[in-house]
Amino acid sequence: MVYYVLNSILKYNSNIRKYRQRIVNKEFGLCTECYRPNTYFMYWCQYCNSKRFEQNFDKWTSGNEHVDKFIRESQKARNYEEILEWIPYDRLRNIEYLAKGGFSTIYKAIWLDGNIHYWRDKKQKWKRGRNKLEQKDYENANKENVTSPLKENEKKGKYVVLKSLNNSSNIHEDFLNEWKIYLQFAYSAKNDNAYIMKIYITQDPKTLNYMIVLQEVIQGIHGDLHSGNLLFNNNIDVYISDFGLSRPVNQSINSDDIYGVIPYIAPEVLCCKPYTKAADIYSFGIIMWEFTSGVSAFNDIPHDFHLISKICKKFRPKIIKDTDPDYVKLMKRCWNSDPNERPTAEELENSFDIWKNKYPIEDKNSARKKVKKSKKPKEPDKPVTENNHPLSCYISRKLNEIICSKSIDIDLDEIDRALREFDNDSCVKDLPDLPKYDR
Ligand SMILES: [Zn+2]
Question: Which residues in 230-379 belong to E strands, given as ranges?
Answer without folding.
Answer: 230-233, 237-240, 259-260
